[in-house]
Specification:
By secondary structure, the chain is α+β, with helices and mostly antiparallel strands. It starts with a strand and ends in a 6-residue tail after the last helix. The protein has a single domain, classed as 2-Layer Sandwich (Alpha-Beta Plaits). Bound molecules: iron/sulfur cluster. The site of iron/sulfur cluster has 13 residues, from helix 1.
Amino acid sequence: MRAKVIRLDPIACDGHGICAELLPERIVLDDWGYPIIDPEPVSGELLVHANRAVTHCPALALRLERAEAAIDDRRADRTGHRGAA
Ligand code: SF4
């Protein structure tokens, strides 16, 4: 399985906190109960738990994205260019 990063839609998130219970290795809650996501890619057994956190989020506020795509996005944000022209 390829590494993936966890993405959060902060607008959709209701602060239920289930994600932090299912993936405490990468998600902690702030003082108001909203998740703080570790930006490091997840892989292997941890990816299975990350998938569970995503599918159990009642607000559909989490998703997994290929780590390479996330790196491309960060690069594009810095340079203003998306993909090869
Ligand atoms: S389970 Fe979903 S709605 Fe609840 S805190 Fe995590 S991301 Fe937000």
